[in-house]
Amino acid sequence: MADLTRDSERIMGSSRAVLADNRAGGRHRRARSIGRQSARLKRVNILKRLRNILIAIAAIWIAGGIAGAVLSGIGIMGVVGIILASVAAVFIFGSYPKLKTPTRSDLTRSGNVRQLLGRTELWLEAQRPALPPPAAGLIDQLGVQLDGLGLQLEGLDQNHPKAREVRSLVGEQLPEIIDSYRRIPAQMRTETRSGSTPDQQLTQSLATISNEIESTTRQLAEGSLDNLAIKHRFLDTKFGTGADAAPQLEHRAKDI
């Protein structure tokens, strides 16, 4: 009876801890994707797992059907075995393949710049729990900015100066700043040195990179903005208020 009481108390304590964690933001928030590109990579991984589960279950039941035809039935134990094998397949293939967190070397491996941005988002998500709150907040902001930058990089020549600039900024400088911070012992990260603490220096550096990403995105978007403005003026002249004014001007010219 005492053991049951202790178990009940432990379960209630765990429940209260989970409730408090959810009210405070929850671990699920810390695990959320910071951008669309990392979320897409996670979806691809989940779809692979679902595909593997369906293939495994189909293979198990087909094998069971063949065995039943050859042996003129597999009996209740055979059916139970097939069900247990199907459950095992769900558990096994529901956990694999695992989505591997990219390493520093993975960030700069071959591939286009948009793939680099997706890998960087996944890498940043893994680093976020070890960063101070202000820097962790900037990581979320960087995820949104990297998504916007990725849209502007679509179709861009991989040898374009801006593409090379992004590779350096996102694939090298950004992770180096975070790695340098993480190599500092935790007890020294709040100590003032040269007028600021490592926590503050990290946050300021991430803010600088955030501003640079925003600037690069705006520069790349200038062409699209100009094209949209030109098309807008053309449509307005042909079909909008400009089109209505054109006949009136022509009529006035004839009267003169």
The assigned structural class equals mainly alpha
Helix content: over 70%
Rounded mean pLDDT score: 79
Total E-strand runs: 0
Brief summary of the model shown:
With 256 residues, the chain is mostly helical. It is built from 10 helices and no strands. It has helices at residues 2-23, 26-30, 36-70, 75-93, 104-107, 113-127, 133-153, 161-182, 198-239, 241-255.
How would you portray this structure in words?
It is built from 10 helices and no strands. It has helices at 2-23, 26-30, 36-70, 75-93, 104-107, 113-127, 133-153, 161-182, 198-239, 241-255. It has 256 residues and is mainly α. It starts with a helix and ends with a helix. It folds into 2 domains: 32-99; 104-239. The model is unreliable at 1-30 (pLDDT under 50). 78% of the residues lie in helices and 0% in strands.
Q: What are the main properties of this structure?
A:
single chain; 256 residues; mainly alpha; 2 domains; 78% helix; flat; disordered N terminus
What's the structural blueprint in terms of helices and strands?
Blueprint: H1 2-23, H2 26-30, H3 36-70, H4 75-93, H5 104-107, H6 113-127, H7 133-153, H8 161-182, H9 198-239, H10 241-255
Helix pairs in contact: 3-4, 3-6, 6-7, 6-8, 7-9, 8-9, 9-10
